[in-house]
Amino acid sequence: MSEEQIILMTRCLSKSFSGLKAVNNVTSYFIKGRIYAIAGPNGAGKTTFFNLLNGFFPPDKGEIFFNQENVTKTSPWDRSRLGIGRLFQDIRVFSNLKAVDNLLCFEDNRFSRNPFTIPFHTLKTRRIDNEHKEKAAKILERFKINPHTYAKNLSYGQQKLVALGRILMKESYLLLLDEPFAGIHTGFRKMIRDLLVDFTKNGNTVILIEHDISFISEFVEWVYLFVGGKRVTFGKIDEILRSEEVVKGIWGI
Amino acid sequence: MEVLSKLEPFLVYGLIKGFLYALLAVGFCLVYKTTRIFNIAYGFVYMSAAYFALLFLDKLSMAVPLAIGLSLLFTCAVGWGMEKLVYFPLKVKGSSAGVYLVSSIGIYVIGINTIALIFGSRSQILNTGVEETFTIHTTVLTRIQVFQFIFSLLLLFGFSWLLKKFQLGKKITALSNDAELFKIFGWNEKSVRSSIFILSSLFAGAASLLSAFDMGMTPYVGMNALLIGAVSMIIGGIKNITGAAIAGICLGIIQYVVVWLTSARWEQAVTFGVLILYLLVSRKKISGKVRIEEE
Amino acid sequence: MNYLLSILIMINIYLILALSLNLFMGYTGLISLTHAAFFGIGAYTTALLMMQLKLNFFLSMLLGMILTFFIAYLIGKLSLVFKEELFVLVTLGFQMIVFSILYNWTKLTRGPYGVIGIPKPSLGGFEFSELWSFFILSGGIAAIMFIYFKILDKSAFCLYLKGIRDNELAFISSGKSPAYYKALAFVISGGAAGIAGALYAPYITYIVPASFNLDMSIFILCIVMIGGAGNLRGPLIGTLFMVIAPEALKFLGLPDAAAANMRQIIYGLLLVLLMRYRPQGLLGEYKFE
Fold first, then answer.
1. Do the Cβ atoms of A56 and B294 come within 8 Å?
2. What is the ipTM of this complex?
3. pLDDT digits (tens, 9 = 90+) for C211-222
4. How many Å lie between the alpha carbon of C45 and the closest alpha carbon of chain A?
5. Is-above-0.95 flag for pTM?
6. What is the CATH number of the domain that holds A223?
């Protein structure tokens, strides 16, 4: 296994809030082209782990490497730009914008984003804007969402799809998805699963936080188990599922 | 030794000024910390105290203690009225900080222009004739300055005592630290808020009256008072009323020294200067906080 | 006729001011009280350049705009790190600082005495000295600004601002820095106010610091809040309302000083009522809620 195969690595990552260790000394690595799951009971620090990876707050200790680059001190927007996409547990769609605008916000229009140069680029800008609009419309069509509906008027599931659609507008190498399947019914679940599998076929990586283990066990091989902020186990998903004490203790089944 | 005795007047006068500023800081911070309202109309409350006094003393020729008492009463009523008529209904609506802000600007504008309409814009002074002076060591203090010193200290300590020993104080502390916890105790937020506004107005009014006898007023001094209160709060640490008070004291001393070294013209500039310095120094710290706020 | 033209010219100037503040407030949702300062910087720079250095009006306006950009950049950088209400306080502070400088730096600005005798703009021999010619000049510039802001409104830039306003964290995950766009909006907004100032100076021919104080910032704020923010119709109707209504009030015949206070009271009342009952103003797109 060469280093270049590792897309993401964390070393001794720790974060406390008001004395409580949300993420406790987590060392992990993720290989390109795979789908990982991060599982564990509520409050185990999974979302905080994702937030650290995105850079929304600095860790108290530890380092994060993305594509062999130390990004621990990189700003969250620069990190996203490097190719990390994120789906939030609370979705965070732009409620007062239309679905299509939600997606367009995630594009990067060099000509239309600088108010100093906008007047000088009107034709080029319009062409690029239209390209982006078509791309967004296609994605929304796949998800059967009317592009002109305001996001706040969409159902929970549809909002989640819009959030996923946003990520698809960008070029990403690593997706951090926090409960992508919650609130989505079977038809779309399959579609998203296929999307993710395709995504990884191109050598990209997906990390999921998901509670519905049985559904993801069909296409996810590797699992990190988080309990109390610590990385407790790592292994193949069917082995972990088979270990009775794990299942009982961790998932409280 | 000589230096010390030369320094003494500065420290004393500066301290007196500082205590007045501390009153302003506490009054402003109290409201912000508990209700998250950035009350620009605080400037109006401050001003109304002085003008009530003008009304009672000059126009109605009341005795000084009565006039002062009534002025404070009416000032508290103004603050209370703001909360009842404007701020609380907005809270019920669930408004954002910006809405409170613009509303408070509106109240401020209505307030000072009403006063200007009634009393005129020119500078007025509350007249009590030539002041007796006291000499302490090498410092000469007028009777008013002694009052300023004594009453501001009384109010500041009184407030601190209130926070610790009285139920209201406990409620205030709870509300400022954790609104959820406050609800769990089953306390009535509406009445605590009213009390908070009354207290805040009391502080502003006291500071205003204590200064008005000394320096006179125009309808526009309120803005200056607001800025002092707000800047002290920012510098003293927004979550910390004691910090705000201390910052107010420091600001008073610094301002006094600068004005003595240069001229009264730069008084307001000191407030801004201190603010800008603070902004420059704390920029890095603040931006980190902003992100976590998001969570 | 002259009366009508002067009203229209003021409408043009205030429209530019309203559009400028609208660009910032309407799309970021933040409230700024610095615009009178930018207005003043534009006015003073243009006036002084035209008078001391005998520069052409259009060149002075351009330089005034650039200076305003620069100062807006400095103020923006310091203020934008703060959240909502603190941000307003800081802009309030800077508004007063700029006013203080205009008032006290007497060597440059002649302080409260102001700058007198500002010449009319001229272009290649033609002087805009007649009222109707100035109307066309101001109208032309206002129209250009309107078109510019319309282009911006439809551009990705304003879309990004709306995204930031809606959910800053989600926007960050799109790979873009919110601070960058907010700062840009503030700078452009300031510069546009500077252009309004550049027009104002030669029109009035006599400027004093008092025209650019906090009251003026509040006035511009009122235009944007009453008309509505976040689109172009709001500032337009807000400007029409705020310029025409006081003129209508004049016919009530109140003494001058009292009239000024009365007007302010009405503005204050409008702000309070709007925030309570109609936070999107008359025709605004964004509700300050």
1. yes
2. 0.90
3. 999 889 999 999
4. 21
5. no
6. 3.40.50.300
